[in-house]
Amino acid sequence: MVKELIYQGKAKSVYSSDHQDEVVIEYRDDATAFNGVKKASLVDKGRVNNLFNAYIMQKLEEAGVKTHFVKILSDNESLMKKLKMIPVECVVRNYAAGGICKRLGIEKGMKFVEPIFEFFLKDDALGDPMINTSHILAFNWASESEIAFMRKTTFKVNEVLSKLFDDSGLLLVDYKLEFGRFHDEILLGDEFSPDGCRLWDRKTREVFDKDRFRQDLGDVIGHYKEVARRIGLAL
């Protein structure tokens, strides 16, 4: 396979493949936080996130959620359908953590009566500002039907993964999803790994996600591997 670099993000690189409708995603060992302000290289991170994401995407496919995942190519690479990404992040919060605590003055760890759904514009330079459906429609980022689909699918993912993690002794605190267009349909894109969600031990509230990197708690990848072990993924 002859690969040409298409795009290099903070922790992943996107390459062309032998098929115009597919790309190769390389997961690197790079770690970033605070929109790229904090940076480091964490040994084995790329491999762990690649295999973790593949496992989750397959679980979601089994539950009827269509994703861009095709197959694993190597420890650090996967083949994906080539999407035209919608520049919007879909966030679901089951418990209070992160920015919502500061924004609304609420206590960390509060369990919400109902999951909270939020939209954010995917733009590091602007700090990924919170937006609403009016913004999305006004700037033609997505149509009303696409917005409804992303919202419905994000809640479906919440249903599937909350149970998966709960059965493993973990709380799915919050997470973000990204979607993209593939011909005439919308697919779940990007990745689902401890980099893009918050996971706490159900009993102790120990942190098992990228907050370990953000907050200098240490043993980041060791905790990612423990999450994988608990959900049945051998790394």
Can you characterise this structure?
There is one protein chain. By secondary structure, this protein is α+β, with helices and mostly antiparallel strands. The protein has six helices and 13 strands. The strands form three sheets. Strands 8, 9, 10, 11, 12 and 13 form a six-stranded antiparallel sheet that branches. Strands 1-2-3-7-6 form a five-stranded antiparallel sheet. Strands 4-5 form a two-stranded antiparallel sheet. It is globular. The two termini are 26 Å apart.
Using DSSP, what is the number of strands?
A: 13
Major β-sheet profile: 6 strands, antiparallel
Order of H and E elements:
EEEEEHEEEHEEHHEEEHH
Structural class: alpha+beta
Helicity range: 25-40%
Tally of alpha and pi helices: 6
Distance between the termini: 26 Å
- Rounded radius of gyration (Å): 17 Å
- Estimate the mean pLDDT confidence: 96
Beta fraction: 25-35%
Low-confidence stretches: none
Question: Per the principal axes of the C-alpha atoms, what is the gross shape?
Answer: globular
